[in-house]
Structure formats: C-alpha cells, structure tokens
Amino acid sequence: MKKGLKVVCFIANNFEDLELWYPVLRLREAGVTVHLVGEKAGEKYIGKYGVPATSDYAFGDIAIEDYDALLVPGGWAPDKLRRFPEVIEMVRAIDRENKPIGQICHAGWVLISAKILNGKNVTSTPGIKDDMENAGAKWLDKPVVVDGNIVSSRRPQDLPGYMKAFLSLLEKRYPDS
Predict the structure, then answer these.
(1) Active-site residue (options: 82, 106, 154, 155)
(2) pLDDT over 70 for what percent of the chain?
(3) Of the residues 12, 105, 128, 170, which is catalytic?
(4) Which InterPro entries does this chain map to (predicted)?
(5) Beta bridge partners of 152
(6) Is 105 annotated as catalytic?
(7) What pLDDT does 177 receive?
(8) Rounded Cα–Cα distance for residues 79 and 81 (Å)
C-alpha cells in the first residue's frame, strides 16, 4: 500500500488497549497516516489496561472529508464517544461517502447511535448482540464480517483477521494509493 491514505481513529478513556494499538500500528506499518482524535487535542487517554495514548486532534479540529477511513476501537470508550454529536456526524459522513469503517467489540455502539447499521451484516462482542439487532443489523458470530464499507470484529483474538480485512477494503477502495 502506498503512502497518502489518512485514517481517523476515535479515542476516549477506557478504550480496549489492543483494539486501539494493534490496528493503528498495522496501518502505520502499511504507510497509512493515522490520527487519534478525541474530545481534546493533546490529551492523554488511558486504556482499560493502563496503556496510554495521546490524541493528535480534537473532534472539532479536523475536517472528516480529508480522511479516507475511520476506526472505532472497543472497550468502554464507545459508550462515551457516541455521546458527542461531532462523532455521530463524522461517522455518518464517512458512511455516506462509502469510505471504510472499522469497528470491533463494543465499538458497534457508536455505529448504532449514528443509525447506519439497518440492514447490515455485522459482528461485535456478544454482549451487544441485542443492541446491534435492535438497530436493524443482522448479527453473526464470526471473527470478522465485511458488509459494504463496514468491517466488524468481535474481540482482541480476532484482530489479525480484522486488520487483514480492513487493509483489503482500503486497497479495494483506493487502488491507486
């Protein structure tokens, strides 16, 4: 994959450490620019297991149209992230443009709040299966599910397949990058 692609990754306290860092590092290895975006720029956020991450930008500091894809890590952070109107609008904007969206574990909550899952095949942690189905999605107990522009996964053990699918979707969407 050539350099030039930009991915936004949302961040808030209590993100699932591996579900944030594994995708970010894999994308950076592939030459993709990844920006961590949270409520405040330059803020240190702490993962569920104590691994820190510092946001590059605040939600209001970026123009979502400048990004090629979106990642939402799991943990308890998605329950906080979905309360920000800016986050919901950014998810909807990325979805409207059919740009890749990656979500794992509890990250489905953000997509539910953005109301973009109706009629989609998805997976997540089994703990939010009912939430996903109540949002109109068909929930599948599989390590990775790709439906259109959405790549979903269940848990940290599924990360290798999740990132393989996400990178593949990026390459299909942006073959010349």
Answers:
(1) 106
(2) 99
(3) 105
(4) C56_PfpI-like, Class_I_gatase-like, DJ-1/PfpI
(5) 103, 145
(6) yes
(7) 76
(8) 6
